Amino acid sequence: MVKESNIKLNNHQYSYREVVAITNNFKTIIGEGGFGKVYLGILTDETQVAVKLLSSSSKQGNKEFRAEAQLLMIVHHKNLVSLVGYCDEGENKALIYEYMANGDLRHHLSVTNTNVLNWKERLQIAVDAAHGLEYLHNGCKPPIIHRDLKTPNILLNENMQAKIADFGLSRAFSTENDSHVSTDHPAGTRGYLAPEFQASGNVNRKSDVYSFGIVLFELITGRPAIIIEPKEHIHIVDWVYPIIESGDIQNIIDPKLQGEFHTNSAWKAVEIAMSCVPTAAIQRPDMSEVLAELKECLALEMSNGRSESRVTGGNMTTSSNPLIMTSLELQSDIAALAR
C-alpha cells in the first residue's frame, strides 16, 4: 500500500513509477547536493525538467524536502526556480523543477569554464538574483529568509536569466524583528555565513544580504568565497579589502574579462558588495536598496557603452563624462570603508 502524502500541494503529484519513466530510470545526473542527486527528466509533452531525488542518507532530508516543496507552492517569481511537481511515496521522495539549461553560476565563474561571462552579463545576473531575494524578503508575508544563498544555488536558464534555487533551508519568520535562533543543524555554507550566525546562530533578512554580498564579490572577482592558497584559505572579503584600499580596479575585477569593463560601473558594483558585508547586520542595506543600486549600476554600464571611458593599466582614462568623475569619488569612499 502506498503511504499517503502529507504534503498538500496544488502542483501535480507524480507516482514513483512516473518519476522513473520521466528520468529514463535515472539515466542522466545533472547535479548533486546535500538533499540528493538531480536527474534530467522529460515529461510526456517533451518538456525538460530537473528531478531532485531525496537520498536515503540525506541528513534531515524529510524535513528539508517538505520545507522546500511547501514553500515553492506559495512563492512565485520569475527569478525563483519554479516547482513543476513532486513525488511523496513512503521512502521515495522527489521534487520536479523547471529545467535550467545553463546550470549554476559557480560553474560559469570557475577557472575551468571557457565561456567567460562578460561584465554586462554579470551585472544582469546580479540584478536577477537581487530581484528574487528582494521578493522573498519584502514580497512575501511573512518574509522568507533563504539561509543558503550561494553561487551554486543561482541557476541560469537558456536565456542566461538567473533564478534562485534550493529552498530546503529557507524559513518564514513572523516575529517582530524577523529573526530566528537556529537550534537545528547549521544552515548555510562556509564562506557565505553572516558573522552573526557564526557567533550566535541568529539569522534574519540581513544574513541573506551578507550572503548576497559574497555572491556579488564572486561575480566581480571571479574568485570563490573561500580562496585556497598554497599555505592558507582566505575569505574573499579579506582578500579584496587591501586591494580596494590600493585603488586599483584592475586587480579586483576578474582577470578573465581582460579589462573589458567600464571603471565607473565596476567601482559602483564593488561599493554595493562592500555595503552588504559589514560585520554588524544593522549596517547592511535592505535588499530593496541593493536591487535599486544594482539597477543603476547596470544602467551605468549600458550608457558607458556609448562613452569614451576605458581601463588602461589599472588606471582610468577619462573624457568629459561626468559619470566618470563620480566613479573616482566612489573609489575614494570605498577605500575609506576598507580602512
TrEMBL record:
Its main location: membrane. Pfam families: PK_Tyr_Ser-Thr. CDD domains: STKc_IRAK. Residues 24-298 form the Protein kinase domain. It is found in: Membrane. ATP binds at residue 52. GO terms for cellular component: membrane. Transmembrane segments: none annotated. GO terms for molecular function: ATP binding; protein serine/threonine kinase activity. It is a single-pass membrane protein. SUPFAM superfamilies: Protein kinase-like (PK-like). PROSITE patterns: PROTEIN_KINASE_ATP, PROTEIN_KINASE_DOM, PROTEIN_KINASE_ST. Keywords: ATP-binding, Kinase, Membrane, Nucleotide-binding, Phosphoprotein, Receptor, Serine/threonine-protein kinase, Transferase, Transmembrane, Transmembrane helix. Belongs to the protein kinase superfamily. This is Protein kinase domain-containing protein. The lineage of its organism: Eukaryota, Viridiplantae, Streptophyta, Embryophyta, Tracheophyta.
